[in-house]
Structures are given as C-alpha cells and as structure tokens.
Amino acid sequence: MSSIRCNDLCKTFEQGGETIVGLDHVSLSIEEGEFVCLSGPSGSGKTTLLNAMGGLDTPDSGRIQVGDAVLTDLSRGQLADMRLQNVGFVFQAYNLVPVLSARENVEFVMQVQGVDARQRSQRVQEVLAEVGLEGLESRLPAELSGGQQQRVAVARAIASKPKLVLADEPTANLDTRSAAQLMGLFVSLNQRGITFVIATHDSRVMGYARRLVKLQDGRMISDEAQEPTAMVV
Amino acid sequence: MNVGSRLAWRNLWRHSRRTWLTVGAMIFCNVLLVFMISLQLGSYGMMIDNSLGPFTGHAQIQHKDYLDDGKMRQSVPAAAALAQQVRGDIGLESVSARAVGFALASSEERSFGVQISGVQAAYEPLVSTLPGLVAQGRYLSESDNDAIVIGRVLATNLRATLGDEITFLGSGRDGSFAAGVATVVGIVDSGIDDLDRAMAHVPLGWFQEVFAMGDHGHQIVIRFADIDAVTPGLAALAPQLDLGDELVLLDWDALLPGLRQAITSDMASAWMMYGVLVLLVAFSVLNTQLMSVLERTREFGVMLALGMKPSRIARLVGMETLMMAALGLSIGVLGGAAVVAYLSVAGFHFPGMEEMASQFNLPDRIYPEVSALGLLWGPLTVFVMSVFAALYPALRIFRLRPVPAMRAV
C-alpha cells in the first residue's frame, strides 16, 4: 500500500498576480519501507510535493498513485478516507487540538476511524509508550514542551498503524536534542516497516535519510541513495 | 462522553466570556419569554373569566334580535321553565334565567341610570361571579321579593347603604310606565368600577311584575365547567332544544365578539415582539459560532488533513451550538418557571396598571398562568432558532480545503 508513484506532476499557484511554479514535471517513485527526505530551499516545492502525495492537494496535471489508489482520480471524500486509513501526518507546528489532552489527541483520530473504545484505549497506551510519553497522557498541549507536543503528533500519526508517514519540517520548531530524539523515533518506526517521507531543509534531518531527493524551483534536481550519517539517539 | 462530545464541550469554554455572553442572552430571552407568555396566557384567561364571569356566561339563549337591538320586547317566553329544561338537557345546574332593563334609580338624595337585572336568586350564583363578590350585606335569596343588590360605586353615588330604599323608574315590556321600590340588602365590589357603577340585581319575579314581563325574560345564561367545555357542551345541547324561529343559542364568542378580537390582536403584536427578541438571540448565536469557526480554520484544516470529513466537523459545530442552546434552555426555563411560580401566587402589578387593566376587564393584579405551553414554547423556539442560526457557520466548513485552511492565521 505504501509505494508511491508520482508521474509528471505539475502545479502552479497564483500569488499577488504572479504565477508561481510549485511543481514542474516531477516524477518520483518511493517503495515500501523507504526513508526519504525531500530537501531544498523555501519555495522549492517540497511541501507541495508532500501535500500531493498525501492527497491534501491535487496537482494541475500528472498522476499520483499511492498503493493501489490513484489519488488524482479520487473525490474529496475518497481522498479523506484514504488519508484517514493509510497516511499519518506530522506537521511543523504540531497542530494538536489545544483543548484535548495528549491521550485524547491520539484517540481522536482513531475515533474518527470508528475504532471501538476498548481498542482505542489499548492502542493509545501502546503508542504513547512507544513515543516515550508515559505519565504525560492527561496533559494538555500547552502543558507540554515543543518536543513532547511533536511526539504526541507522531503518536497521533502512527496510532492507526499507517504504512506511510508524511512529515513536513517536523523538527523546525525543536531544539537540537528534541530534534535528534524525534528523528531517532522516526528511524525506529521506519525499521518496523513504516515508509517515511520527510520534507525538510534541515541538514541534521537529511543525515538520517537513506534517500535524498532535492528540489529547486519546483523541479527535481537530484535523487540519490545515501548511507545515513546521523547517529540515532 | 466520547471525544467528539468532550471536544465540543471544551471548545465552548475556550472563550468562556463569549460563551457566557451568548448563553446569558439566551437565558435572559428565555426567562423573559416564559414570563411574558405565561403572563399573557394568564391575562387572557382572566380577561375571558372577568368578561364572561360577571354577566355573560359561556352561552345564552336569547331572542334572535336581542343581541343587536337590546329591546325590552325582544324577550324569551317562559324563561324560568326554559332554564329548567336546559338544566335537565345538559345535566348542569349552572343555568339561570335573567331579565334586563334600564331604569333611573333614585335614593333620597340622588338619581342615577342603572342596568337592572332580574335574576333567579338560587341559580345566579352558579352562572355569575357577582353574587360571590358581595362586600356588604348579602346576596339575594329565593325568599326575597323587593330586595336589591347594587354595585359599590352605585351605592356611593346614590349615598345608599344597607336597608335604604331605592326607587326605580323605567318602561315596561309593553311600553307602560314601570316603577318600583326595593330595599338594599347587599353591596357588590367586583373591582371593576364600570361594572359597579351601574349594577343592580333584583329577584326575577319582582322584575317581571314591575316591568310587565309576564313570564318572559331576556337571557337564559349557561355556564359550563370551563371554557374548553363550551364547544362540546353546546354541540350536545343544540339538538335537544326546540327554540323555534324567534330564539337563538349563542356562545361567548358571538355574545362578546370584541373579546376574541382583543385577544387575537394582543397576541399578534406580542408574537411580533417575541419574534424580534428570538431573532436577536439567533444573531448573537450566529455571531458567536461564526467567530468560533473562523478562528479555528487552521484547526479544522488539520482535522481535514487527518481524514476527518467536513460533515463530521460541521456536526461538531452543531453539537457545540446544541450544548450552548441546551444550557440556555434549561437555565432559562428554570429561571422563568421560578419567576412565574412566584408571581402566580403573589400576582404581578406595576404602578399605573389599574387604568389599562380595567379597559380589558382585568383587575389591577395579574396572575401568570403556569403551563407547559407558557414554560416551553418560547425557550423551545429560541433553541430551534439558535440551532438554525449555527447552520451557516457549519456549512462554511464544507468550503474549507486542508492546505489553505492550515495556512490560515
């Protein structure tokens, strides 16, 4: 399910009367279990590509297939179902629901999926333990540090056992230590078979990837396999 | 409570001051509506009772032209016998024959015009409230012949007290000169000055003798257990009566057409005012929920990104509104019920109310009616309109797209 096929994707935006190229004929394939970083400067198109892979945004032309689903052929409702069941998202700004505790934030997505209360409760315990947040379950996001909030966001992303996690600048708001811990968590989850695609311009993050795709002005300028250079904390 | 309900409840208290302002507006509106509607229903009940109670009754048998012309000769033959027959037909004792005329009443010092009624002393207390309102002396009894009970204002005007004689001059049914002397045995204080100014009750037999009525009367007054029993009661009675071409059976609506018109007109203007009040609350809810949705655009964008469907988020907004409206409904109804319960015992009065109230045959203290309709109609309308007002903010969510929504500040 987690293999991604992007074929000749194009996307432009209108901004202040100017046409900005988001994606310029990008083609890319990602296999199950890969750990890929999309890198490039701001405006290079990495977030646009990530959003297109997650079915959050649709390209102007081209074709995207995630597993068996051709995203460019799906309706809004089908895309929502696809995201809910198959994709975990981690955002730069954590984006937790501020009035729900850590436990409830994680549980919320599972409830949308229709998971029954008992299973939900058990799974929440598991994933919070997995991301190292035992004992902090009942805290509200405002009572957690940035690193802890991002861990809750990761727990929320993996709670439904997706095969694919898309992360957009996940370490941008974290200090070095928290960023290293988060990347260590990603690597550990990736080793259990979850495909990771991370959009980042943080060189520390790129060091964890086994494949680095570089973008510039909406075009893919390189796509290289690499040996991870960063140490997992 | 599931996460959705918990989320909705907590969202309400993110901006507790704003929520309380909106809920407060609902509570105020609900208390006001409960009070106003209960007062209105109570006053209508009192208007009907006070208008029909003293004289008209729930229905009457009359000469077909008497209602419009009110002439002495437009009378009901064998009035007492007909009243007795009706008592048997409907199985109620509260039926009384009456004859009505106008005369000049004179005491030793003064003279005033009065409406003099010949009544059946045994049955009049069953159809009229006036016999129960005797402030001095007593009401007529079956053994009385030339006794009279007059209104308090008339007694004051005539400077007559108990035991005084009053002379009546008028014209009889046949156009002859009618004159008689009666002794005051009771003075009635109905609380309605217009009524007390011209009221004089004498025994029917004496009236028939003085006014050359023979066995005729002018009205067979019928009073049912309550206003709701009138229509079925008359429907049952009508087929049993053989009134011929000269007599008619009229219900209170036909006897006092102005009463229903006054109620209808008062209701129309009051409903309009209530409508404006409810609309103001609905706009307050619209404003609160729209603000709430707009400031959470980013959060909703994240929910959409995670795979939540817009309909589910709209339901969340709907649930928040339902909770807010339910809070306003419950506190408002409880508050309104407490106010109404207190005033239904203590009565409602404000200075200067007497004059206005007397125009509608109301006393100077009104007692709100405690009823399910009065307690729930207004608050339920506010509830429904509040939920309806939240539709627009909820529908806006269907226009959101995850990526632009998540970029919203």
Automatic annotation (TrEMBL), chain A:
InterPro entries in UniProt: AAA+_ATPase, ABC_transporter-like_ATP-bd, ABC_transporter-like_CS, ABC_transpr_LolD-like, MacB-like_ATP-bd, P-loop_NTPase
Keywords: ATP-binding, Nucleotide-binding, Transport
One annotated GO molecular function: transmembrane transporter activity
Pfam families the record matches: ABC_tran
Keyword Transport: yes
Residues in ABC transporter domain copies: 4-233
SUPFAM superfamilies associated with the record: P-loop containing nucleoside triphosphate hydrolases (SSF52540)
The keyword Nucleotide-binding is annotated on this UniProt entry: yes
Region forming the signal peptide: none
CC per GO annotation: plasma membrane; transmembrane transporter complex
Family to which this protein belongs: Belongs to the ABC transporter superfamily. Macrolide exporter (TC 3.A.1.122) family.
PANTHER family reported for this sequence: ABC TRANSPORTER ABCH.1, IMPORT ATP-BINDING PROTEIN
Name used for this protein in its record: ABC transporter ATP-binding protein
UniProtKB/TrEMBL annotation, chain B:
Compartment(s) of residence: Cell membrane
Top-level taxon of the source organism: Bacteria
ABC3 transporter permease C-terminal domain residues: 272-400
GO biological process, one term: lipoprotein localization to outer membrane
UniProt KW Magnesium keyword: no
Keywords, ordered alphabetically: Cell membrane, Membrane, Transmembrane, Transmembrane helix
Membrane topology type: Multi-pass membrane protein
GO cellular component, one term: plasma membrane protein complex
Domain MacB-like periplasmic core: 19-230
Annotated TM spans: 20-41, 271-294, 322-350, 370-392
Pfam families: FtsX, MacB_PCD
Protein family according to the UniProt entry: Belongs to the ABC-4 integral membrane protein family. LolC/E subfamily.
Entry protein name: ABC transporter permease
